Amino acid sequence: MDTVDGARRSRRRWVRPVAGTVVAGVLVVAAVTHPSVVTATLRVLVAVRPGWLTAAVLVEVVSVLGIAQLHRVLLGAAGATRPRTGDYLAVTYVGGAVSSSLPGGPALAIAYVYRQLRARGVAEASAAWALVVAGAVSTATIALVGGTVLTLAGHLTAVTVVLGAAEVAAVPGLIALVRWAARHPRPVIRFASAVLGRFNLLRRRPVHTGRERVVAAASTLNGIRPAWRHWLGAVSWSAVNWCADAACLALCLLAVGAALPSPGALVLAYVAGVVTTTLAVTPAGLGTTEAAITTVLVAHGSPAQPALAAVLLFRLLSPGLNTAVGTAIAAIRRSPGPDRPARQPVREGLGTGGGDPERDRVGGVGT
User: Fold this and answer.
1) Is residue 233 within 8 Å of 133, Cβ to Cβ?
2) Where are the domains of the chain?
3) How confident is the model at residue 335 (pLDDT cuts 50, 70, 90)?
4) DSSP secondary structure code for residue 204 in this structure
5) How far apart are CA 67 and CA 93, in angstroms?
6) What is the DSSP annotation of 260-276?
């Protein structure tokens, strides 16, 4: 059994690097076999309009700020002392870089942000609660915002009405679920213990390793009672994150001189990219996400070459530029200055009795 589990983990570890290599190979072959398309796309990129490009960079910064503020609002709701905005924005950038550049990135990013919160004095339960709820709020918000725009931009049918009602109910339903979990910790403890037990088996640890910490953390959930202003703030900042990132795509289209599609087509293309990135086996959805967004834009009337150029520019900013900024911040923080000792890693794990940085990763929220 242990040999089989080890072989499975080994295969999973190599899926993303191998998939990334395959996609890179396909892109090289496509460039060699279709040089005219590549040349035309590069010609459009070289002629990018600096004003629109600057605006795209700025709204992408706002998008990352939305993620950071979403976490800060939920940390405040959990009764924790919120990190300073600038400091936590830097943490968010580094977490995003980890998520988009490493195999197993999203889980490693979550672990990184969790450890940074613990290093800043946030209690285990508060940090874990804020990160879990942030992911749920982010998912519910993109469903609400994206679904609303698509419904308003299209024709009202029975299906869209039902979907719209479900989307409107998603956020209140999430809030009700979180409030119920806070008042009924026992089912939460049973569920978390079962998940932890399976996780421990995969890691070949005793089944009950870390259970005491899970029980202690879940037992404190009853003390976390977010007010409605916290929920409103969380949903608002999550909407800022998604809307600013989608606006970056629109500005990239303008930057390459392409006409904007209809709001519905733009949102559909953006959501297609988000879904593809989430399901892709390549880091940050390399290759597949660009293809998905471009396909939707072209299907809704955008010329192929400007659309491809705009999508490539968008992906250079999100996640490309964000990853570069996060990597630079990580390098600066790891390098001891003349009056600053090297930062030591925090050793606590997320309710596992010791944590493994190879297992957990940060959301992604968001992009």
Assistant:
1) no
2) 51-334
3) low
4) T
5) 10
6) P--HHHHHHHHHHHHHH
